[in-house]
């Protein structure tokens, strides 16, 4: 059943004024709510973004890029940054598509509402002035009738002059009666137009305005949910990528362990048995600090740190280890 | 191809120490990252929750509950609160499942790592002391050989006493030789055990430890993404509910407009035409302020506010409007 405020609420001007004002308050409250929501999203996005930045390696260290767990963390941070981007976009969409639009619309709505209630008040003033006109004509007619009646009484008893005065009064009453009838017709015409044309038209506009306001709220709520919903598949993809990065670590465990070997392997073999040096057989040889390997080192002397045994000049693990390598022993 | 740090990195004790220390640093850095992420989620959840609370009507006004756009907003706020709950749960899961677990695990790992490197250092000390023993035996043997040789030279030239002394020196050299051989055998045995048993066993433990650390990182990254992924379907349902709430407004537009009528309708009809009062026909009647409706009002006088016409005692719109209702006119 269609609804017509002009018919149903013809006498509820003040309440409609309050109701539409409450509607605008609601619109402003909802706009403020979305604005605050957007601010929260933006602040969240900023925090997430700076978290991602804070933990992202300043510049990819060569070493780090060789370890899948470092790469997985870097991938997680990149995805997190993408989440931040999405949240920023959400905040931006909420602001531009809803907050700005609703603010602009609310401004228009206030102007429109003001116009309708001004029209209403003008119509009210018109019918009130028409009523005053009618009242005044009616009183004049009543007074003139009274005076004509009084003159009639006098003329019945006294002279011709009085009779002439009585006729004049009768004429005046007749004139007042015509005025009163005119005012009455005018008022009834005005009143009919007021309640059956002006008020319905104005109220219909108010009703249309209210319908549009509700549609806008509905649209804003839908857009808001839609804007947020658009974020989900992207976030879901980011999480998939994070999961993939995490999952990529374990199957490469063996190669990860090999990376450590590649990075650190010296390429040397562990030392073999120390040989016996028979000083009794070469007793004439002078005592020296040289050891059994001196003949291989061609006289170079290095401090032998037995264990750990670190060499800067690493040999790649694929390079065959020399069977006769530099192996410096000195005590 | 399986990897064996004990074989490949036998001389990289210090580098392995650095590498495993870096691994623990990474673990602590990742834990801190997840902690900060959880804090961000918690702060976001709190903001969202308080936003929802702030805009939720303090107590449901009877009027508000009759308007679907108010109900839709209330539904949106309830769903938003549910989103906050989800984010709080995410923060909680990140903290309990990842931050706490990894913190505990890192503590264990540090203890374990300390043990392995202590074992390594102990083995190193042992082989070094074995080497010193060998060097000392070797030097004594060399010295005794030299002395025996010198005594030999003397005895070749001089007396029997010297010859006896020379034999003694020879015997001493022979003893030293035996000691040296024993030390040499002991050292070679120690060295073989060091590089082929002790170091591989310790390094294997370090390698196992590193494997477990990487597995834990992988697991933590997976759990983190999983915890976040679990939020998505719930958030998606919340958004669906928000969308439904928004969508529910428009199809009820007509009934919404009727609600306004229900709330405000007075139930009265607009006033009809004002009738003519013929004072000329009843001129003897005293002048009064009464109007054409006085006979209906039984003398009650009320101020007639033409328009707007607000009555507190509303008549329900379904109640038939009385054809002869109180309609007070006084001027």
From TrEMBL, chains A, B:
Residues 152-175 are annotated as: Disordered. GO terms for molecular function: lipid binding. The keyword Transferase does not apply. Keywords: Coiled coil, Lipid-binding. It comes from the Eukaryota. Residues 3-254 form the F-BAR domain. Signal peptide: none annotated. PROSITE patterns: F_BAR. SMART domains: FCH. The keyword Coiled coil applies. Pfam families: FCH (PF00611). Transmembrane segments: none annotated. PANTHER family: FCH AND DOUBLE SH3 DOMAINS PROTEIN, FORMIN-BINDING PROTEIN 1 ISOFORM X1. This is Formin-binding protein 1-like. It comes from Seriola lalandi dorsalis.
